[in-house]
């Protein structure tokens, strides 16, 4: 198709994902029910979600810590539901993979947690996780965090579950109790949260493989592991977590840490050398960026859009 024509028939997956929100929720549920572990790297922006899909992961994660850090804020409950929902929607809409979002403590009391579910459903997410920390929360891998009593966390979850309009939307309950009250107490909380209707339990800040095994043996609900760097948990690979019987694993802040490390190195080099010439081999090439953006396919709308000639670029 050429100049000026609008190729609406061939825009599938171009401006937004092909899969509907419900397709993605069903896919997430199927992945959790399968014998394989679902791997969900965090996407710090929508384009990274495209990369996560292309490389073959099973899902995308939107981290509260990353949404906060992106705004140059610490992860201490300062971000609002609107900020998180806006970013999560931007990310979820460009990928056919299910996207799980970090809803912290639900942005308030149980009624707010219920509203959070409706807003994040409307934003096209496949699921969210709600944690049992007190408000305001803090990163689960820092000391000094506190959890609400089990019955309060259960009220939060019941409200969330009752607010769900799409029964395929996944509600994950995170317990931060292991590091405060011990694993046995965390297991008891996980059971209570599953009874309250949680589809998946996020076992936050366990230390060793043995801890993950102990948790797995104690409950029969799907479990999610958090492989965040520089925290409390040993970095256990996905195959090992799968063999333990975990159903999902997130790598929440990894892509942001990689990108920020590279950006800092590059900026220091430019500050020192006055040029980025020596950095080109460490950059995503223009051609790779265009490929990821599917630039060429936009010619279906207007053949003048993609005039990038690979042969003329280094
Ligand atoms: C998973 C997490 O809730 C997040 O917001 O990504 C964080 C990750 C981190 O701070 O490394 C958490 O574990 O609390
Ligand atoms: Mg978080």
From TrEMBL:
<dbReference type="InterPro" id="IPR040442">
    <property type="entry name" value="Pyrv_kinase-like_dom_sf"/>
</dbReference>
<dbReference type="Pfam" id="PF13714">
    <property type="entry name" value="PEP_mutase"/>
</dbReference>
<keyword id="KW-0479">Metal-binding</keyword>
<dbReference type="InterPro" id="IPR018523">
    <property type="entry name" value="Isocitrate_lyase_ph_CS"/>
</dbReference>
<dbReference type="InterPro" id="IPR039556">
    <property type="entry name" value="ICL/PEPM"/>
</dbReference>
<keyword id="KW-0456">Lyase</keyword>
<comment type="similarity">
    <text>Belongs to the isocitrate lyase/PEP mutase superfamily. Methylisocitrate lyase family.</text>
</comment>
<dbReference type="InterPro" id="IPR015813">
    <property type="entry name" value="Pyrv/PenolPyrv_kinase-like_dom"/>
</dbReference>
<protein>
    <recommendedName>
        <fullName>Methylisocitrate lyase</fullName>
        <ecNumber>4.1.3.30</ecNumber>
    </recommendedName>
</protein>
<dbReference type="GO" id="GO:0019629">
    <property type="term" value="P:propionate catabolic process, 2-methylcitrate cycle"/>
</dbReference>
<keyword id="KW-0460">Magnesium</keyword>
<dbReference type="InterPro" id="IPR012695">
    <property type="entry name" value="PrpB"/>
</dbReference>
<comment type="pathway">
    <text>Organic acid metabolism; propanoate degradation.</text>
</comment>
<comment type="function">
    <text>Catalyzes the thermodynamically favored C-C bond cleavage of (2R,3S)-2-methylisocitrate to yield pyruvate and succinate.</text>
</comment>
<dbReference type="GO" id="GO:0046421">
    <property type="term" value="F:methylisocitrate lyase activity"/>
</dbReference>
<dbReference type="GO" id="GO:0046872">
    <property type="term" value="F:metal ion binding"/>
</dbReference>
<comment type="function">
    <text>Involved in the methylcitric acid cycle. Catalyzes the cleavage of 2-methylisocitrate to yield pyruvate and succinate.</text>
</comment>
């Amino acid at each position: 198709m050429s100049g000026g024509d609008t190729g609406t028939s061939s825009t599938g997956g171009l401006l937004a994902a092909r899969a509907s929100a419900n397709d993605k929720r069903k896919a997430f549920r199927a992945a959790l029910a399968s014998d394989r572990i679902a791997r969900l790297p965090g996407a710090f922006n929508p384009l990274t979600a495209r990369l996560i899909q292309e490389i073959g992961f099973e899902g995308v994660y939107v981290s509260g810590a990353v949404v906060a850090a992106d705004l140059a804020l610490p992860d201490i409950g300062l971000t609002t539901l609107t900020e998180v929902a806006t970013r999560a929607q931007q990310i979820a809409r460009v990928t056919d993979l299910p996207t799980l979002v970090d809803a912290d403590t639900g942005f308030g009391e149980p009624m707010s947690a219920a509203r959070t579910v409706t807003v994040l459903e409307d934003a096209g997410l496949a699921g969210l996780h709600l944690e049992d920390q007190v408000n305001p929360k803090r990163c689960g891998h820092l000391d000094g965090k506190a959890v609400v009593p089990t019955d309060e966390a259960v009220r939060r979850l019941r409200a969330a579950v009752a607010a769900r309009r799409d029964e395929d939307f996944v509600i994950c309950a995170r317990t931060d109790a292991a590091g405060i009250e011990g694993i046995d107490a965390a297991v008891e909380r996980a059971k209570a949260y599953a009874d309250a209707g949680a589809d998946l339990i996020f076992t936050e800040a366990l230390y060793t493989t043995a801890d993950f095994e102990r948790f797995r043996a104690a409950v029969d609900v799907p479990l999610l592991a958090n492989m965040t760097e520089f925290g409390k948990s040993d970095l256990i690979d996905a195959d090992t977590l799968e063999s333990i019987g975990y159903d999902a694993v997130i790598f929440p802040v990894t892509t942001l840490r990689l990108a920020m490390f590279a950006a800092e190195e590059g900026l220091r080099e430019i500050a020192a050398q006055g040029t980025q010439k020596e950095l080109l081999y460490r950059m995503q090439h223009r051609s790779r960026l265009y490929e990821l953006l599917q630039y060429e396919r936009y010619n279906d709308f207007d053949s003048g859009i993609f005039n990038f000639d690979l042969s003329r670029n280094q």
